[in-house]
Design brief:
The structure is a single chain. The protein is an alpha/beta fold and 284 residues long. It folds into two domains: 2-69, Helicase, Ruva Protein, domain 3; 83-283, Rossmann fold. Helices cover 40% and strands 20% of the residues. It has ten helices and nine strands. It has helices at residues 2-19, 26-38, 54-68, 73-77, 98-111, 129-137, 150-162, 204-207, 223-235, 251-260; strands spanning 79-82, 85-88, 119-123, 142-147, 168-172, 184-189, 236-245, 263-270, 276-283. The strands form two sheets. It has a seven-stranded mixed beta sheet with strand order 5-4-3-6-7-9-8, with helices on both faces. β8 (263-270) and β9 (276-283) form a beta hairpin. The longest helix is centred in the first third of the chain and has 18 residues, at 2-19. The chain is globular and about 65 Å long. The termini are far apart.
């Protein structure tokens, strides 16, 4: 009973601290924060068997202070779950969102009906989450990930090692340049797509902590899409598939760019908020 009271008291203290800065759902945040920094399942918090040492209490307090300053919970914990993989994240790498999980799931569903070995290119791979999720589902697939940022590239390599995934090749460079001459069945990407002028209005957690280079899509948010569409057909096999995560209001512009570059059978898949979030199109 004493142990239960101890952890209950700590949970209440952290919840109150987070509530003081008007954080959404502070009790859930407190649970996730404490369980994350202790590297335990949240259910253990209520098991009655948990003993918190002084050193662990210091770690929890430090983590709570970091969260109060706006640092993303995932950075503080140091990892997140992405389709069953433990993906390390931190300073310099974009935090994968549920929409990006949906993007990877759509590619995985498509590849399940493809016959024989497949090749996949993930542009702007960041933490490597998309490439690694696909590779983990298809051990015989040849998966490549390309990333320009030094910090994000290091995370991608580390995530391949920590998840023991060997059928991914990560390259550092700008979009297609590191894979010149290669052809792929699928090209997938979650490129930067926020308009430059909109970045200052993003949530503090994103604006002040996540890398601007992974967010800024130029004046109209479409700079990377134009480059990807113009180059993709050279790197796709005949009838190859291009799949892209897009901004919440970009589907009309993306459709036009895709048609101008000769893509066919174009479709848009909606996210969990019924917003057209995933572009889907084939090379002619």
């Amino acid at each position: 009973m004493g142990r239960e009271k101890e952890i209950h008291k700590i949970l209440n203290q952290v919840t109150a601290l987070l509530k003081s800065c008007s954080m959404d759902n502070p009790s859930k945040e407190a649970e996730a924060l404490i369980a994350g920094v202790l590297d335990i399942d949240t259910s253990v918090l209520y098991s009655g068997s948990l003993i918190i040492s002084d050193q662990q209490m210091d770690t929890i307090s430090s983590a709570a202070e970091r969260r109060l300053k706006g640092e993303p919970l995932q950075y503080i914990i140091g990892h997140l779950d992405f389709l069953g993989l433990k993906i390390k994240v931190g300073d310099g790498v974009l935090i994968p969102r549920p929409e990006t999980e949906l993007l990877a799931e759509k590619v995985i569903e498509y590849l399940k009906i493809k016959a024989g070995p497949v090749s996949v290119l993930d542009l702007c791979t960041g933490s490597g989450c998309i490439a690694l999720a696909i590779a983990s589902h298809f051990p015989n697939a040849d998966v490549c990930g390309v990333e320009q940022s030094d910090a994000a590239f290091r995370y991608a390599i580390a995530n391949a090692d920590s998840n023991d995934i060997c059928n991914v090749r990560f390259f550092k460079g700008d979009l297609f340049s590191p894979v010149e001459g290669e052809k792929f069945d699928v090209i997938v990407s979650n490129p930067p797509y926020i308009r430059t002028k909109d970045i200052s209005g993003l949530q503090r957690e994103i604006r002040d902590y996540e890398p601007v280079g992974a967010l800024d899509g130029g004046e109209d948010g479409l700079v990377f899409y134009r480059r990807i569409f113009s180059g993709a057909k050279e790197y796709l096999k005949p009838s190859g598939l291009l799949v892209l995560e897009i901004g919440h209001d970009q589907s009309d512009d993306i459709r036009k760019i895709a048609l101008d570059n000769g893509f066919i059978d174009i479709a848009f898949h909606k996210d969990y908020s019924a917003i057209e979030r995933i572009f889907w199109g084939f090379s002619a």
